[in-house]
Amino acid sequence: MNIAQTITDNIIKQLEAGVAPWIKPWHSNGIDAPYNPITKRYYNGINFIQLSMMPGSTHNWVTYKQAQSVGAQVRKGSKGVPVIYFSPLEVKDRVTDEVKKIPMLKHYTVFNLDQVDGLELPAPAERTMNESIASCEEFIKTQRAIIKHGGNRAFYVPSADYIQLPELDQFKSSADYYATVLHELSHWTGHESRLHRDFSGLFGNEAYAFEELVAELGSAMLCAHLKIDGQLQHASYIDSWLKVLKDDPKNILKASALAQKILSFTTKEEAEEA
Questions:
Q1: In terms of Cα–Cα distance, which of 153, 156, 136, 134 is closest to 145?
Q2: CA within 13 Å, CB half, 183
């Protein structure tokens, strides 16, 4: 089973239908990113993307054995979703005897909580959009990014290291404004003094499209983290994202890993596998 190809095919199918599958109304059911209530950890990187685009009434996902460990049971006939992880494989060089560790892609299966009987969770604490926006404003301040306002475009300028945005009242909603800030802030993290990503791409080429995909996924993760349900999708990039993904199915793994670094860098929290 080529899990990278399977995930990429699922994403391509939705993008071709004009839908970016990582876009969700994160705060609508009081729960944020895909979460494992047994380990009390969030699913990261590509698993965030994979589980976000799956049907299910909750954002809680567990393995068959985890459900059993707390006296619950996955319903017979339920179809699980593969999530991936990297396991190091030690390989010895025949000439030098040097042992190298090669990351091997593996996967296991998880089930949404609505497929599990006997596992009841307390209702999540309600959080208003005003509370989410206040939290987001404080989060943005802690980044110490230079943000300028004016004009009708949103963009990040790597050479001068600042973000340019329209005024807040030009957006359809406050949530859309803050989602846009988080998208540009995701670009901002790529500066050479921070995460040092490749900004050499020109508009329309693959390097540019790949960076836009990284920023889009990074802002989706940040919106989930902060419970902001603003509009993320940049429809004009869908065709270029499709080309990036079709050229190499591993590109979604690379992009989601870089997006996870954006979340870890801005929140100062190291990712732990769920």
A1: 156
A2: 22
| Residue 233 burial by Cβ neighbours in a 10 Å radius (0-12, 13-18, 19+) | middle
Neighbours of 50 (CB within 10 A): 27
Q: How far apart (Å, rounded) are the C-alpha atoms in residues 104 and 166?
A: 45
Residue 16, pLDDT score: 87
Q: Where are the domains of the chain?
A: 3-267
Cβ neighbours around 231 below 10 Å, total: 16
Residues 166, 196, 200, 218: what is their CA dihedral angle, to the nearest 10 degrees?
-50
Residue owning tokens 């025949």 = 94
Q: What is the structure's pLDDT at 23? A: 67
- Output phi, psi for 214, to 5 deg: -60, -45
Q: What does the alpha-carbon distance between residue 195 and residue 206 come to, in Å, rounded to a whole number?
A: 20
pLDDT at residue 28, rounded to an integer: 44
Q: Coil, strand or helix: which one is 268?
A: coil
- Length of the chain in terms of residues written: 274
pLDDT means per 10 residues in the chain (274 residues)?
82 84 53 86 92 86 97 96 86 82 87 95 81 95 97 95 97 93 97 94 83 93 89 72 88 94 92 72
